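Example S7 (structure tokens).
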């Protein structure tokens, strides 16, 4: 199957001719009419970009025929987007950029169609490169909690799992360049094998996205998007390093990329090493240390017919586990992993292509992922290597997009996955040997009835088959199939240029995974048992989002109600096995509801002043009574920032202070305990400095400045009496460099 699909793609590429369609132009300041050197111009569908030269001029080459979305951006100025119809003739487009007051028109690609935030039917939150590199967290996944409605389950700094509006684990889909990550994500102890190096931005859908991405996207999607390719004729790169005071940790990476006549390539490597973190009481958290390294390679061709790109990601992590046996053995705060740690390796190969035929575009994504998970105990355990599993996953996705006219477009696609899990000689089988196969067909129609009303509607069918061979007395043979239908409809109302209302109604699904159907063994100091009779988990969610922006302020309020039929969750029982408490996978009708409110004030004439505040509220309940597990506490975030785009030799200078007020969580599930609220203060400053033509970017950030002693409700270290991390100061340095060919 792999060879057949790849042959089709390569054959299509070989029969199409090359061309050299170009777009050129000049970038100006709209007020002063001065040229803007260093402005970014990006063709979003191709990840192709360039920068304006010292005279503000730019050139894009080898563009395919069809409709493309271009974005023009410059630090301190509002982003301009242009939909351009390429018909084989060279185009000249001059752009006037206005000084930025408030942001809001960023381009996003994770939704149904590539477009600006105001054009999208669903709201997509976005974290850009600058925000990622300035994060003070040793694990960048933890920085996602800065987005309203997003939280993080943590088991130390190296083990972090995202939560979107109360849903997590198998209910949230993590994408790497649009490819679903498969990392044994059924457990809060199993982190995603990704790192921040080489990522241009993160896009987050809060709400059901099963229609576009399938099972696992019932709660939302987090898409990690790689950096754009180098400008034509250039080789450029960067060196990054971070230091964390709390863990005496370091995180370093170096990357280089080039573009010669449409042939693009890139390489990157990263290292991360942290000692045990220090709690607010000045005591170390035993065995929370972690060490990780990664490498990324990519190569491809971007020409008139479209693009073809290959990506290879390698990640290796050793994550200390703060479990009771380790607490008795680990007495020194060291860096090396010696006992009770996860030894994880993940390799991901992706082939992505886009071929343009006028108003029709065919995109194909193929991927192969090899994930190895080992658990190392100690010399005191009968066998030191307790778990050794290997998960192999092949996925494919083909989607055809056709634009009938400026207001009507549609896509139709197929998607599938073939997965196998194999246990090796280690004694514990967290999940059994198993095979899983998915197949789906989906489509969506986009219609702009008037300049003020946009509607999208879609339908999807999915089929899943799970096979588990018999193993001993604990694992009976299992062969089961699941069928699902998903549907969604959404509308975007522009009451005026400043007021936007989104309404979405979606029925999403999630099929039970291998662990939920067949697990029967020890896992994380408890005995977990699956249920082969589990049914599909389905939900019906309504979302309403109001966006208002003026020249100097934006206001957003979102509300949702998520009714989940047959919600799958892990629950304790009164049973014991081999001296451990038994937890079983159960299903029950449930509901989650809440929302987020946010405001960003940028008052005139104090354009350098930014005031932000947001509040997140969530309730998760069983219909029969009681509350759902892993529901975050309500949170209020306040931020004050002073920012100057240009001051003498300094660029993009900022100083900020922030406060997070987390409320009590008095609605725990049956096996959780209530959590006391807390308040955290943080601050940061940073600037870009140019010395003799060499740019250097600095930032210094401090979190939990008052060294508050607290336990977050979603920290699984509560079970062993470990508090969250105390004060942490992070220094970040980034040095970009370029070589013009």
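Recovered sequence:
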């Amino acid at each position: 199957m792999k060879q057949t699909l790849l042959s089709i793609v390569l054959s299509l590429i070989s029969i199409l001719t090359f061309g050299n369609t170009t777009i050129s132009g000049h970038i100006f300041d709209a007020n002063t009419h001065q040229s803007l050197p260093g402005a970014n111009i990006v063709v979003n569908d191709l990840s192709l970009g360039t920068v304006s030269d010292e005279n503000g001029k730019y050139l894009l080459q080898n563009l395919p025929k069809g409709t493309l979305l271009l974005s023009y951006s410059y630090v301190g100025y509002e982003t301009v987007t242009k939909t351009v119809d390429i018909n084989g003739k060279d185009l000249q487009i001059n752009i006037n950029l206005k000084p930025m007051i408030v942001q809001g028109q960023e381009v996003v690609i994770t939704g149904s169609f590539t477009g600006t935030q105001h054009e999208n039917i669903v709201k997509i939150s976005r974290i850009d490169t600058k925000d990622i590199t300035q994060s003070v967290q040793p694990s960048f996944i933890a920085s996602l909690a800065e987005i309203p409605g997003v939280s993080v389950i943590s088991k130390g700094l190296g083990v972090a799992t995202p939560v979107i509006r109360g849903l997590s684990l198998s209910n949230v889909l993590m994408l790497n360049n649009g490819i679903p990550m498969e990392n044994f994500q059924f457990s809060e102890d199993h982190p995603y094998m990704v790192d921040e190096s080489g990522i241009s931005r993160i896009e987050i859908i809060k709400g059901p996205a099963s229609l576009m991405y399938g099972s696992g996207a019932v709660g939302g999607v987090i898409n990690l998007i790689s950096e754009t390719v180098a400008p034509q004729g250039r080789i450029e790169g960067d060196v990054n390093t971070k230091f964390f005071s709390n863990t005496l940790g370091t995180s370093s990476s170096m990357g280089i990329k080039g573009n010669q006549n449409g042939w693009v390539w890139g390489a990157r490597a990263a290292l991360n090493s942290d000692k045990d973190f220090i709690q607010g009481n000045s005591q170390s958290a035993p065995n929370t240390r972690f060490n990780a390294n990664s490498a990324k390679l990519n190569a491809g061709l971007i020409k008139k017919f479209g693009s073809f790109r290959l990506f290879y990601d390698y990640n290796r992590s050793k994550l200390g586990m703060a479990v009771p046996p380790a607490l008795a053995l680990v007495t020194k705060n060291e860096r090396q992993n010696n006992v009770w740690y996860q030894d994880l390796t993940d390799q991901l190969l992706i082939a992505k292509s886009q071929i343009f035929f006028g108003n029709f575009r065919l995109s194909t994504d193929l991927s192969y992922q090899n994930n190895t998970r080992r658990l190392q105990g100690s010399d005191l355990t009968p066998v030191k290597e307790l778990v050794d599993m290997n998960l192999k996953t092949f996925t494919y996705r083909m989607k055809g997009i056709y634009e009938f006219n400026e207001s009507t477009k549609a896509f139709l696609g197929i998607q599938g996955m073939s997965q196998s899990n194999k246990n090796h000689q280690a004694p514990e089988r967290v999940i059994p040997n198993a095979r899983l196969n998915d197949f789906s067909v989906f489509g969506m129609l986009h219609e702009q009835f008037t300049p003020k009303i946009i509607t999208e509607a879609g339908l999807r069918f999915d089929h899943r088959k799970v096979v588990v061979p018999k193993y001993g007395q604990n694992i009976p043979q299992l062969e089961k199939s699941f069928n699902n239908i998903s549907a969604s409809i959404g509308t975007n109302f522009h009451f005026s240029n400043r007021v936007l209302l989104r309404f979405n109604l979606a029925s999403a699904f999630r099929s039970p995974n291998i662990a939920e159907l067949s697990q029967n063994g020890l896992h994380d100091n408890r005995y977990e048992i699956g249920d082969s009779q589990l049914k599909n988990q389905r939900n019906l969610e309504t979302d309403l989002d109001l966006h208002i922006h003026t020249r100097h302020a934006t206001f957003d309020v979102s509300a949702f109600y998520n009714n989940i039929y047959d919600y799958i969750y892990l629950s304790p029982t009164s049973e014991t096995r081999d001296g451990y408490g038994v937890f079983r996978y159960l299903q029950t009708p449930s509901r989650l509801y809440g929302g987020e409110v946010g405001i960003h004030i940028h008052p005139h004439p104090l354009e350098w002043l930014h005031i932000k505040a947001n509040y997140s509220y969530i309730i998760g309940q069983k219909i029969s009574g009681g509350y759902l597990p892993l529901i975050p506490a309500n949170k209020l975030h306040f931020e004050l920032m002073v920012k100057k785009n240009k001051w003498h030799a300094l660029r993009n200078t900022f100083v900020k202070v922030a406060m997070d007020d987390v409320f009590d969580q008095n609605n725990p599930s049956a096996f959780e305990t209530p959590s006391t609220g807390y308040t955290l203060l943080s601050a940061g400053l940073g600037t870009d400095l140019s010395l003799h033509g060499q740019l250097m970017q600095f930032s210094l950030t401090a979190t939990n400045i008052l060294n508050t002693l607290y336990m977050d409700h979603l920290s699984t270290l509560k079970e062993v009496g470990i508090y969250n991390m105390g004060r942490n100061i992070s220094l970040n340095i980034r040095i970009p460099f370029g070589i013009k060919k």
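Notes on this example. The chain has two domains: 1-100, 143-153+202-328+337-740.
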